[in-house]
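Key result, reporting period 2: structure in, sequence out.
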């Protein structure tokens, strides 16, 4: 009986997690898409639980998720309001995903690629100096899987994320490594966005392979240039899609 009760508790906990995660996602999308404006007050617990047909606890937990991502802030007596844009944790993987649920602005895309231009070429140069055998093997496996599955599939995009994650780890810089989740999410969601209208005419996998070969060869200058070219070409691939989806 105890085992049955424990299983039921686990199922109920899973349902609660799904509920408040779903509510957080829905509100998060409404915020990053501009439907809820900075400074706007959200529903209180009682009104929200009645309107959404959920428990007050589930709604409260969803707001905690959003608060941790810098999207909302709660204060006694004043309630929960949407934060200003400069408070948002833009590199949070969930926040990035929510932004790409709709069509991101040109400014957002340009800003995201600016970040990649600052970080990834120098990261590739460091990786060429500091990489170890295990990291090189991970990058090579990732590229082979990208080629096998293509970037038009979930498996191919996961391999793409693995490649960039292994490269950032190979820098050996703990501060750069903290950007892994954000950079990997940026790579993944811009790739999804590029395939939203139609399959790309240009294959980006050779760009990744050039970066890999330079890192493997221990040539930091060549790795830096190869990665800069990869990011630049990725932006050129993304711009036409942004135009077509508006």
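The corresponding designed sequence is given below.
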């Amino acid at each position: 009986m105890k085992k049955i009760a424990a299983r039921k508790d686990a199922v109920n906990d899973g349902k609660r997690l799904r509920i408040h995660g779903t509510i957080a996602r829905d509100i998060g999308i409404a915020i990053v898409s501009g439907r809820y404006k900075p400074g706007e007050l959200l529903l209180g617990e009682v009104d929200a639980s009645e309107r959404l047909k959920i428990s007050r606890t589930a709604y409260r937990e969803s707001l905690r998720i959003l608060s941790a991502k810098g999207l909302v802030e709660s204060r006694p007596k004043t309630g929960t309001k949407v934060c200003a844009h400069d408070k948002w944790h833009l590199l949070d993987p969930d926040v990035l995903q929510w932004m790409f649920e709709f069509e991101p602005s040109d400014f957002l895309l340009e800003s995201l690629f600016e970040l990649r231009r600052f970080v990834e070429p120098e990261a590739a140069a460091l990786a060429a100096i500091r990489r170890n055998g295990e990291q090189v093997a991970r990058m090579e496996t990732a590229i082979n899987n990208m080629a096998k599955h293509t970037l038009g599939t979930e498996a191919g995009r996961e391999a793409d994320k693995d490649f960039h994650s292994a490269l950032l780890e190979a820098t050996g810089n703990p501060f750069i490594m903290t950007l892994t989740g954000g950079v990997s999410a940026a790579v993944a969601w811009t790739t999804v966005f590029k395939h939203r209208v139609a399959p790309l005419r240009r294959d980006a996998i050779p760009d990744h392979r050039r970066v890999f070969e330079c890192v493997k060869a221990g040539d930091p200058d060549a790795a830096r240039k190869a990665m800069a070219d990869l990011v630049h070409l990725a932006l050129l691939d993304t711009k036409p899609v942004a135009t077509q989806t508006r």
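The mean pLDDT is 87. Strands lie at 72-75, 79-82. This case is discussed further under Risks and Mitigation.
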